[in-house]
């Protein structure tokens, strides 16, 4: 009650000091705005960073000496572009040798199958004279045995050809892999080898980073995870100060025991994300709770007098009536109103500094 009486007394004092005879007052040209009911979502900034979805080491897939290095650190490459060459001549010779071995194995298989067909024909002729004077049971048994042997030889030759064909395919693959190609679009960040170095399979050739496909990585306090489900949209502020949108793609399952945080990945929902560097910092504005509906007034409507917050309300007769208000959180260019105003009321936002209580108003541009 004491606070109310004090506020009322101050308001009466202000009105008394600022009041002029109505006859001396002229219509004031002012700008106005509506008191609104809108959602309030409080946020807390947490530092994150841009990360590449594709980055890592490009390794040698064949052993050999490096004969060419076609890119350097900072070069931008496209998927499939040749980055380095490893002993292409050696790989070509190995492929040719494997092809010759496969050709020989195929010829041996063909010869083995021809011999098998010959043995089979001999057996057929002997079986065709059974019951005649020229038939010999011993010769028939030998012919049957010869067919079994020729069939086994043909099967072995076919297996040898299959093995030689597989070795040829491996040799052809090694010849292809002798040219180290970019697995995706990106920028060369590190070179691990030089011309003349001998590499084993799996040795590093260079590091590649795809800076055209980025996400935002944030280690979020565990007590803020509940409001971040896949699909949730938040606001982020990159280093250039712009305000952009990002969507939760996934939430990590493990908590860091030291920092009490969990990893959350966000997908940028704005064009031009590629202009930001991998590892560049970005502020993620995390929601502190469930959004709530609040009454708000434009900041330009609020006047400060003797420690009080006052606004001029346009009454039904188009006159200015001064009114004290209690303000809460800042909501962009507006203040939350805890008491003193109702949604839909009209307040003066331009020209209010020179107004007097009860002064008639004209809504328009201030001269």
Please, could you describe this protein's structure?
The chain has 367 residues and is α+β, with helices and mostly antiparallel strands. It has helices at residues 2-18, 88-128, 137-177, and strands spanning 28-34, 36-40, 43-52, 55-59, 64-69, 76-77, 82-86, 179-181, 186-191, 198-199, 204-209, 214-221, 233-238, 244-256, 261-268, 281-287, 292-298, 303-305, 308-314, 320-324, 326-331, 334-339, 346-350, 361-363. It folds into three domains: 2-41 and 292-363, conserved putative lor/sdh protein from methanococcus maripaludis s2 fold, CATH 2.40.420.20; 43-53 and 214-287, Efflux pump adaptor protein, beta barrel domain (Elongation Factor Tu (Ef-tu), domain 3), CATH 2.40.30; 89-177. It has three helices and 24 strands. It has a six-stranded antiparallel barrel with strand order 3-12-15-14-13-16. Helix 2 packs antiparallel against helix 3 (137-177). The radius of gyration is 43 Å and the shape is elongated. The model is unreliable at 1-5 and 20-24 (pLDDT under 50).
């Amino acid at each position: 009650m004491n606070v109310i009486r004090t506020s009322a007394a101050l308001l009466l004092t202000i009105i008394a000091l600022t009041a002029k005879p109505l006859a001396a007052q002229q219509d004031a040209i002012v700008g106005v705005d509506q008191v609104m009911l809108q959602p309030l979502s409080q946020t807390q900034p947490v530092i994150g960073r841009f990360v590449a979805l594709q980055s890592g080491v490009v390794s040698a897939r064949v052993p050999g000496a490096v004969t060419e290095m076609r890119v350097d650190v900072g070069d931008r490459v496209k998927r499939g572009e040749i980055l380095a060459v490893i002993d292409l001549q050696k790989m070509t010779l190995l492929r040719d040798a494997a092809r010759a071995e496969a050709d020989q194995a195929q010829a041996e298989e063909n010869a083995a199958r021809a011999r098998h067909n010959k043995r089979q024909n001999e057996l057929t002729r002997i079986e065709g004279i059974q019951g005649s004077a020229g038939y010999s049971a011993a010769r028939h048994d030998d012919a049957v045995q010869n067919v079994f042997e020729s069939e086994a030889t043909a099967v072995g030759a076919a297996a040898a050809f299959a093995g030689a064909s597989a070795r040829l395919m491996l040799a052809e693959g090694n010849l292809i892999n002798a040219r180290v190609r970019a697995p995706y679009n990106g920028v060369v960040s590190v070179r691990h080898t030089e011309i003349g170095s001998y590499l084993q399979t799996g040795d590093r050739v260079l590091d590649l980073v795809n800076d055209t496909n980025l996400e935002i990585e944030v280690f979020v306090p565990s007590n803020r995870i509940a409001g971040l489900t896949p699909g949730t949209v938040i606001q982020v502020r990159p280093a250039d100060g712009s305000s952009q949108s990002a969507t939760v793609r996934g939430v990590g399952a493990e908590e860091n025991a030291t920092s009490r945080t969990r990893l959350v990945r966000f997908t940028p929902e704005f064009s031009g994300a590629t202009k930001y560097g991998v590892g560049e910092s970005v502020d993620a504005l995390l929601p502190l709770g469930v959004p709530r509906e609040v009454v708000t007034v434009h900041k330009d409507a609020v006047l400060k007098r003797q420690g009080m917050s006052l606004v001029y309300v346009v009454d039904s007769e188009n006159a200015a009536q001064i009114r004290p208000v209690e303000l809460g959180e800042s909501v962009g260019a507006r203040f939350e109103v805890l008491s003193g105003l109702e949604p839909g009321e009209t307040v003066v936002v331009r020209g209010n500094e020179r107004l007097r209580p009860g002064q008639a108003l004209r809504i328009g541009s201030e001269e």
